[in-house]
Design goal:
alpha+beta; Immunoglobulin-like; 6-stranded mixed beta sheet; 3 helices; 13 strands; elongated; disordered N terminus
């Protein structure tokens, strides 16, 4: 029961302003963000060694960088890119921010040198949530939200089920112990008294 209770970690009062981090340096990474919150996507270790790269969302360019300089009017409103650490931040997340993000890199001659895609999923939080974080294979952080009431009811059901199972096995063991005790032959009185009674009865019949 203690193990079950230890798995229930409830964080209350999280609604807006939730910040998450995603490692998007691996192709096929999945990122999760809270509606109205912030997500930091690690696109690369450092952009200093990449002459040119651009970020596209559903094939629409939202960022273009050349020689560590952001080309004006290419970064979307509400986002921020830090060339020093290669992190792309999106503030005040909306459902429209969900989608596929593709990073394309180019060499000094303008030829493509690589491409990788990540998926961003924006989820709606509630006033009271159960926050479950798990580290996936690509290193990204997944955050899922569930109603506190539903999770609480599930936890109660699990605990009651464990209690019921414990009571059943305890009752079954007690019943088995009683059956073993009943199966043991019961002896009454002293065996010597029984032998004496047999001898006296024999003597009575003889005299008769």
């Amino acid at each position: 029961m203690e193990a079950v209770l230890g798995l229930i970690v409830m964080l209350l009062g999280l609604s807006h302003g939730v910040g998450t981090y995603c490692d998007g340096r691996q192709d096929g990474a999945q990122c999760y963000g809270a509606l109205g919150g912030t997500v930091d996507i690690q696109l690369m270790d450092s952009s200093s060694e990449i002459p040119r790269y651009k970020l596209l969302k559903n094939f629409l360019m939202i960022l273009s960088v050349r020689n560590s300089t952001i080309i004006p009017n290419t970064i979307v409103q509400g986002s921020l890119f830090s060339p020093g650490n290669g992190t792309f931040r999106i503030n005040n997340l909306s459902r429209n921010d969900s989608g596929d993000y593709t990073l394309e890199t180019f060499d000094s001659d303008g030829y493509s040198s690589g491409e990788r895609t990540l998926k961003l999923i924006v989820q709606a939080p509630v006033s009271s949530v159960l926050l479950v974080s798990e580290c996936l294979s690509q290193g990204e952080m997944r955050v899922s939200y569930k109603s506190l009431l539903i999770c609480g009811l599930r936890a109660v059901v699990v605990i009651l089920l464990l209690i019921g199972i414990s009571i059943y096995f305890a009752w079954k063991k007690k019943k088995h112990d009683k059956a073993e005790v009943s199966a043991v032959p019961q002896t009454r009185g002293d065996p010597e008294d029984s032998l004496l009674m047999v001898e006296m009865s024999s003597a009575t019949y003889t005299n008769a």
